[in-house]
Amino acid sequence: MPLNSSQYTDLMDRYAQTQIENQLTLKDRKAEVYEKLPRIRKIDQEIAASSIQAIRERLDHGNDTTGSAKERNHKLIAEKKALLQANGYSEDYLQPIYTCPLCQDTGRVGTRYCSCFEQAAISLLYRQSNLEQVLQTENFEHFDLSYYPKDTDDSHPYSPYENMSNILSKAKEFVSSFDNAGGNLLFYGRTGLGKTFLSHCIAKALLDTHHTVLYQSSIHLFEDICSDAVMNKGRNPQSEETYRYLYSCDLLIIDDLGTEYTNSFVSSELYNILNTRMRDKKSTLISTNLDLQELTERYSDRITTRIIAEYKVFKFYGSNIRLAKRKKEIQK
Ligand SMILES: [Zn+2]
Predict the structure, then answer these.
(1) C-alpha 37 chain-centroid distance
(2) Is domain 126-331 given the CATH code 3.40.50.300 in the classification?
(3) Using CA atoms in the order 93, 99, 102, 103, what is the torsion angle rounded to 10 degrees?
(4) Cα–Cα separations (whole angstroms), residue 175 to 72, 245, 247, 292
(5) C-beta neighbour count of 31 within 10 angstroms
(6) d(Cα 213, Cα 159) in Å, to the nearest integer?
(7) What's the gap in Å between 113 CA and the centre of ligand 1?
(8) Which residue has the higher pLDDT, 229 or 69?
(9) pLDDT band (50, 70, 90) for residue 237
């Protein structure tokens, strides 16, 4: 599923747009600061003049005065930063603004695409444009443990609260050690216990640290794969080019595994995706309402065996958080 040329042009247009917006913001900032702190305008003029002077000296008279010009500018820059801070601005308030500091809003780092470009491509190709919006509210900052009851029952040694505190801290650990440790997660348990919410928390934290995340509901994912297999008879639907990001994104999240229409084709595709990602040391997060027994029955032994061996498995239990949240909203 590579980008077609109009999608590529669209993405590059977005970068151009971002650059223009950031330049305009910087222009406004300068105007605001110059108005309020005329000394800063003077400093900027002096810095520019001093650099030009040094170049002229070298060209016209063969004198290399760049060293002393540099020193002078150094002092001026320090004065400027101090002035900005003394007036309630950050010291880099007048520095160029980049939405993505990695590629400075060009989409490329050296000869490679930046992670922000890859992520934009993923969102476009896999129709996850609403994810960004969801992540505004579903993230670690908004995770509320107070919905989980603190009493234990006979079926579990820990209360839902204790269980969830543990899962939450493991999820945060997963994110903080992502670049070094990687690994895979399986969240299972009944519906409405926060599995999807926690997957969103992890997605947001990794996107914020410039990783690529492909988030797909199981239904959607396998619908696309199956229809592609039907449409492109004879062509290998597993080809890396067709589903490049399924294999190459830093984290693949398959939400609600088990809700798709499962047949032997789906089962073997699932195995192929999970297996290839494990082989390439790419992380996968699966959430499902099925328990391990049901997973084995529905897919195959080889899938469940690999999951149990290679995934950190967490069981969610307790009462339906989604309902409790709705009730609370109604009572507001
Ligand atoms: Zn970037």
Answers:
(1) 38
(2) yes
(3) -110
(4) 45, 20, 19, 25
(5) 11
(6) 32
(7) 8
(8) 69
(9) very low
d(CA 292, CA 303): 11
pLDDT in tens, 32-43: 999 999 999 999
Residue 283 φ/ψ, nearest 5 degrees: -85, 145
End-to-end, the C-alpha distance of the chain in Å comes to: 46
Distance 100 CA to ligand 1 centre (A): 5
Query: How far lies 150's CA from each of 158, 169, 188, 194, 276, in Å?
Result: 9, 17, 20, 16, 40
Strand-by-strand arrangement of the 184-189 sheet: 213-217, 251-257, 283-288, 184-189, 311-316
Higher pLDDT, 330 or 116: 116
104 C-alpha vs ligand 1 centroid, how far in Å?
6
Alpha carbons 231 and 1: distance in angstroms, whole number: 13
- Say which amino acid occupies 13: D
Q: What does the domain layout of the chain look like in residue ranges?
A: 5-108, 126-331
In the numeric block, which tokens belong to residue 67? 């060293």
Contact between 186 and 312 (Cβ < 8 Å): yes
Ligand 1 is an ion; residues with CB less than 5 A from it: 100, 102-103, 114, 116
User: Rounded to the nearest whole angstrom, what is the distance from the C-alpha of residue 174 to the centroid of ligand 1?
Assistant: 23
Q: Ligand 1 centroid to 189 CA: how many Å? A: 37
Whole-number average pLDDT of the chain:
89
Q: Which residues contact 37 (CB under 8 A, 6 or more apart)?
A: 83, 84, 87
Distance CA 109, CA 93 (A): 24
Ligand 1 centroid – CA 210 distance (Å): 8
pTM for this predicted structure:
0.81
Summarize pLDDT for 183-201 with one digit per residue, the tens.
999 999 999 999 999 999 9
At 283, which amino acid appears?
S
